[in-house]
Design brief:
There is one protein chain. The protein is of the alpha+beta class. Among the domains are: 143 residues, Flavocytochrome C3, Chain A, domain 1 (Alpha-Beta Complex), CATH 3.90.700.10; 128 residues, Fumarate reductase/succinate dehydrogenase flavoprotein-like, C-terminal domain (Methane Monooxygenase Hydroxylase, Chain G, domain 1, Up-down Bundle). Helices cover 38% and strands 14% of the residues. It is built from 18 helices and 19 strands. The strands form 5 sheets. Strands 5-2-1-9-17 form a 5-stranded parallel β-sheet. A hairpin with a 5-residue loop joins strand 7 and strand 8. The protein is globular and about 75 Å long. The two termini are 46 Å apart. The structure holds flavin-adenine dinucleotide. Flavin-adenine dinucleotide (FAD) binds next to helix 3, helix 6, strand 6, helix 7 and strand 15.
């Protein structure tokens, strides 16, 4: 049976990371040159790791599916990145960022990891400023901050509504420098399809060249996955269309544990679904909740009139508006964490107070801040987001309140990793959204960019050396070894099977069915009955996919439909894992809300006695139920309590 060792260093919380760094093994410069590292992914996590490894002197092979690293999904991140600099002098500290993150994650993450994250957060800002990232500055020229959910301080650094873009350009510059120096070799339009394991250690990957369709083999002393999250399992999400979980699922099928798959984040401020022909949802950044106020009508008749198009939001009098977040959570108001805000919106809409024709929308209103600050200030802060909203909806948000509704956005679950970011397979590491660490059951806004860059710039450059230090005498591997042969054959067989089906359903239509099942049964409100039914329907979708999908074109050629089909095959596996984990977790915590487990006020009800663990799932074979292995969570430094955003 796979044993869990999270490798948390000894000592006081604030000393663990320093102790680790003081005692870890190092690789000397001449040995670094003899060691190869594969990094899959060029988003913030992958690009920062690959650039750092290159700078350190390792040989790096860096892969991505897009035609440029700059097209990784990270480029889309809007709102900001957290750090505990306390520039606002509003009471922030490393401990407070740590505490807010643990609490925000509903006490389902590891203390030591989260503390380290808070500790290195300040270095990230220094690193990015040194790279020239144009963070917003205040009138005096110092870096500006704004507030994000789940915090009472302003600790979010931002670059208008394009923070991810600017950070990725910074990481890309660092990466480009290494590519130019020859320490990093970049492979664009390559998709990892399988992992190669030799004598229990990860030694390479099988990739499909997306331009030629050919399978190719690459060997290395260690493999780092930074391939992002699995939100697109739900078909409709705020994620970029190319986001997928295939690399993570192939690692899972080779023995890497998958942790907490049911922890999926539903973001409260997205443009509502407007028809069944959509393939993408648009996020309106959480930063908008700094100034925007969320409300629905107090009276059902008004809501009905709006739904029927007989009335507009701005015709509702102030006293007839229900600012339900401010009413329910006076201390945090519109800045409650995402899970809380999403559920509150659903609750109002379920009761009939929704404000669009489908009844599935609430208002995000800027009339008060525009009156207080002026339109110019609001435009400076959020101009590009307002413009994006108007382009999509044809409504001017400076004049009429925006309409928003929760949507799938981020996945807290992922490949299980220990303190060193190593998965349960030796020599395989996972970074960024691809791993499960740090956010528990709910991620706070602006913390994903922080985690991805912490992992890539400041954690893995140390921890990977501890692994590689005993690999210095291991010569480079030949890709002609039988293990490479077998791994490639597995992919070849899978592709041939898919191409031979030639059924009647397109990949997209099956993906959409998968997404509908996931949203209906494994979405914002989950029940035992719903999850059981969902699992049944997921099995039917899997059968339909493998007997009736139609993939045009050839396998040995550029074929975007085949690319999609390979990804959807893995989304189906992922869907099963999410539902299975959700059914096992008989409690509500963070983004996982089981309707059976709620307080009288409709808040999530945890069961710490029985579920204070990381659920690690071990693959046991095709169509067999996975095995559950538990990593108990021990809270030594914070008192575990019910989350309170009211007072
Ligand atoms: C619309 C939106 C806005 C957001 N805004 C914020 C924000 O303001 N602040 C914040 O903290 N977080 C934000 N997030 C979350 C954050 O953007 C992501 O969590 C983060 O960027 C993920 O980075 P990553 O490096 O882990 O993965 P990604 O950026 O998704 O990169 C994945 C990389 O892996 C590659 N890849 C994937 N599969 C394969 C494969 N099989 N083979 C080869 N390569 C592969 C891709 O090509 C890509 O290079 C936002 C998310 C969304 C959807």
């Amino acid at each position: 049976m796979t044993k869990i060792d999270s490798k948390i260093p000894e000592g006081q919380l604030a000393e663990k990371w320093s102790n680790y760094k003081a005692h870890q093994k190092l690789v000397n410069p001449s040995n670094k040159r003899r060691l190869d590292i594969i990094v899959v992914g060029t988003g913030l996590a992958g690009a920062s790791a690959a650039a750092s490894f290159g700078e350190m002197g390792f040989n790096v092979l860096n892969f991505c599916i897009q035609d440029s690293p700059r097209r990784a999904h990270s480029i889309a991140a809007q709102g900001g990145i957290n750090a505990a600099k306390n520039y606002q002098n509003d009471g922030d500290s490393i401990y407070r960022l740590f505490y807010d993150t643990i609490k925000g994650g509903d006490y389902r993450s590891r203390e030591a990891n989260v503390y380290r994250l808070a500790e290195v957060s300040n270095s990230i800002i220094d690193q990015c400023v040194a790279q020239g990232v144009p963070f917003a500055r205040d009138y005096g020229g110092t870096l500006d901050n704004r507030s994000f959910g789940g915090a009472q301080v302003s600790r979010t650094f931002y670059a208008k509504g394009q923070t991810g873009q600017q950070l990725l350009l910074g990481a890309y510059s660092a990466l480009s420098r290494q590519i130019h120096k020859g320490s990093v070799k970049l492979y664009t339009r390559y998709e990892m399809e399988n992992l190669v394991i030799i004598d229990g250690r990860t030694r390479g990957i099988i990739v499909r060249n997306l331009v030629t369709g050919k399978l190719e083999r690459f060997a290395a002393h260690a493999v780092v996955l930074a391939t992002g999250g699995y939100g697109n399992t739900y078909f409709l999400s705020t994620n970029a269309m190319g986001c997928n979980c295939s690399a993570a699922i192939s690692a899972y099928k080779k023995g890497a544990l998958f942790a907490n798959p049911s922890y999926v984040q539903i973001h409260p401020t997205c443009i509502p679904v407007h028809g069944d022909k959509q393939s993408k949802l648009t996020l309106m950044s959480e930063s908008l909740r700094n100034d925007g106020r969320i409300w629905v009508p107090k009276n059902l008749e008004d809501a009905k009139a709006i739904q029927e198009g007989k009335m507009k939001g701005d015709e509702i009098k102030e006293e007839d508006r229900d600012y339900y977040l401010e009413r329910r959570y006076p201390a945090f108001g519109n800045l409650v964490p995402r899970d809380v805000a999403s559920r509150a919106a659903k609750e109002r809409c379920d009761k009939g107070f929704g404000v669009n024709p489908t009844g599935l929308a609430v208002f995000l209103d800027f009339s008060e801040p525009i009156a207080r600050l002026g339109e110019d200030v609001v435009r400076q802060r959020y101009g590009n987001l307002f413009q994006m909203y108007e382009e999509i909806t044809n409504e001017n948000p400076y004049k009429t309140p925006m309409m928003i509704y929760p949507a799938i956005h981020y996945t807290m679950g992922g490949l299980w990793v220990d303190y060193e970011l190593q998965t349960s397979i030796k020599g395989l590491f996972a970074l960024g959204e691809c791993n499960f660490s740090d956010h528990g059951a709910n991620r706070l806004g602006a913390s994903a960019l922080m985690q991805g860059l912490a992992d890539g710039y400041f954690v893995i450059p140390f921890t990977i050396q501890n692994y590689l230090s005993d690999q210095i005498t291991v010569p480079r591997f030949s890709t002609d070894l039988p293990e490479f042969e077998v791994a490639e054959k597995e992919v070849q067989d899978k592709i041939e099977k898919l191409m031979s089906i030639q059924g009647t359903e397109s990949t997209d239509s099956i993906h959409k069915k998968l997404g509908n099942i996931m949203w209906d049964f494994v979405g914002m409100g989950r029940t035992k009955e719903g999850l059981t039914e969902g699992l049944k329907q997921l099995a039917e979708v899997k059968k339909e996919f493998w007997t009736n999908v139609r993939i045009p074109g050839a396998k040995d050629d550029q074929n975007t439909e085949l690319e999609k089909a390979l990804r959807v095959a893995d989304f189906i596996e992922m869907g099963h894992l999410i539902a299975y984990d959700a059914l096992n977790r008989n409690e509500s915590c963070g983004g996982h809300f089981r309707e059976e487990y709620q307080t009288a006020e409709g808040e999530a009800k945890r069961d710490d006695e029985n579920y204070s663990y990381v659920a690690c799932w071990n693959y046991t074979g095709e169509d067999k139920e996975p095995e559950l292995i538990k990593e108990e969570l021990n809270y030594e430094f914070v008192k575990v309590q019910t989350r309170n955003y009211k007072s």
